[in-house]
Amino acid sequence: MSIGSLLLKVKQNYQHGLRTAYYRDVVRHKILSSLPIKDTTSKDCEIHVLTSANDWLNLVWTLKSFYHFSKRQYALCIHDDGTLTQENISTLQYHFPDARIIDRKQADRKVLALLSSYPRCLEFRKTNHLSPKVFDFALYLESDRMLLLDSDVLFFQEPTVLIQRIEDPAYTLNTVNGDVASAYTVDPIVVEKHCNFTPIDRFNSGLGLIHKASLKLDWMEEFLALPNIIGHFWRIEQTLFALCSSRFGVELLPLEYDVRLDRGIKGCPSRHYVGRIRHLMYLEGIRQLVKQGGLIK
Question: Could you tell me where the beta strands, DSSP code E, fall in 200-297?
């Protein structure tokens, strides 16, 4: 490695300060000394997550903070994006022994076959790395209700409203955290013109309740025909979730669940540490969970 490359790597590793690096590179790994989460078998709701070799350790914090504060035993399904090593998978299986861990190659064979009658869905599933979050989650879901969860969400207390909506049989809407702003690959005016409904503003697909009945393949096939919908790589799966939810029925979670880009937990039950503030997941979020105790020794 050249001196220039070395200096760049050092700058990237420490650009948010030594304390951030300490919590990211030292404290974050201490979650692996915590006890496994057993008996995650409740089909009242099933958690679905897509993770990678870069994000799986953050996911352990996400899941353990949720199970710790919610006191729930929802079933868990972890989808490999194709980059997890066997060591990563073994570690996840140890910490969540009742979870289903979906191998990417096996999922490809199963899901591509099931999408054979939906050509637009099939092509999208073949070409977009985040597409399993839409199709695989729906096709592997074994509950009527899914907790949609990203591996950059941390919980600091019981997410009471979210849990109430998940467990209320009379609650029939999808409900998710609000984004900073609407981030879709299609203009709402185009949706209104072609589909006769208005997409909800600020839908974020990182945290929320999704009803299985809202994830209809024929709807997705229809939406993928909208002009220029195949746009921003990171926004297309969120767009499909938002469109399905808007047609099905949806509302945002309360403000305390919103995605924010400023610092501070501010008494919120959870925070979604999206890319721009990922460093705060370590400096602020994991640091706060260590102070609260209960997750690591």
Answer: 203-211, 250-252, 270-272
Distance, CA of 10 to CA of 26 (rounded, Å): 16
pLDDT for 231 equals 73
Q: What percent of the chain has pLDDT over 70?
A: 95
Structural domain span for residue 144? 3-292
Pairing of strands 270-272, 153-155: antiparallel
- Domains identified in the chain, total number: 1
User: How many Cα neighbours within 13 Å face the side chain of 293?
Assistant: 0
- Residue 297 inside a domain? The answer is no
Q: What value does the mean pLDDT take over residues 158-173?
A: 98
Rounded Cα distance, 294 and 87, in Å: 26
Residues 140-165 have a mean pLDDT of 98
Q: Is residue 282 part of a domain?
A: yes
For the chain, the C-alpha Rg in angstroms (whole number) is: 19
CATH of the domain at 27: 3.90.550.10
Cα 294–chain centre separation:
23
Q: Residues 82, 104: contact at Cβ < 8 Å?
A: yes
Residue type, 7: L
pLDDT in tens, 198-251: 999 999 999 999 999 999 999 999 999 999 898 767 789 999 999 999 999 999
Mean pLDDT of 132-145: 98
Residue 148 is assigned to a structural domain of this protein: yes
Q: How far apart are CA 32 and CA 34, in angstroms?
A: 5
Strands, E assignment, the chain: 42-51, 74-80, 100-102, 145-149, 153-155, 174-178, 203-211, 250-252, 270-272
Q: What is the pTM of this model?
A: 0.94
